[in-house]
Specification:
mainly alpha; globular
Amino acid sequence: MTDTAYLALGWPQVALAGLLLLVNVGLSVALRLGLAKTLLVAGARMTVQLVLVGLILEWVFALESPLPVLGIALVMATLASVTAANRTRRRFRGIYWDSLLSVVTGSMVVTGVALAGVVRAEPWHDPQYIIPMLGMVLGNSLNGISLGLDRFTSTLYDRGELINSRLALGANRWEAARSEIREAIRTALVPTINSMLVMGVVSLPGMMTGQILAGAAPVDAVRYQMVIVFMIASAAALSSLGAILLAYRRLFNDRHQFLRHRLR
């Protein structure tokens, strides 16, 4: 830790910063974008949500039992999985369960490994570590799943005749869908890769910036940020791969038939 004092912000200072949103509102009014009401509602909603989260986290951080912490983690994962499925234009029966299974498996396994093997928090369920780290991992897993599933289902639907032609010519279901699976996984991972390529050069990550503002030494903040980025990349890959493969299993049966009618 450095000797830099942490500068706490009061609500008047937060309100003053909130006035910056008027720039967006003024731009919307001047250019007749029709976004003024949406911006104000979004700002108010964000404020209420963050205040509630802050109050909840204060209560969570005081807990010593792992069960409430794991329960909150499961709620976070469930909300992330529902959001990921809702962002997919072409859906099928079971997409929410598949999304939940993929999120829980990918995010919680990666977070658990990082907590136990890298950070080595004591106790392992310390909410000061598990909740923020899991939250960052879930947010990126959500994006990966939504992008990958949307690309996979939309491509399958649009290429229905091509898929059936491959099957008719003797391809099995994996051979018929392999290129679409690869495209979907590549799409899911592109945002994470792009973020890693410019991190530290074009942009300073949120966690690193927050730790520096809180008085942590920049080198210490960098180490934590690197751990988080590696976690995010791994969890996004595992979650996206799981969701896409589960979708593949639902949209192709054991008789190597493409069930295009399941996409709606």
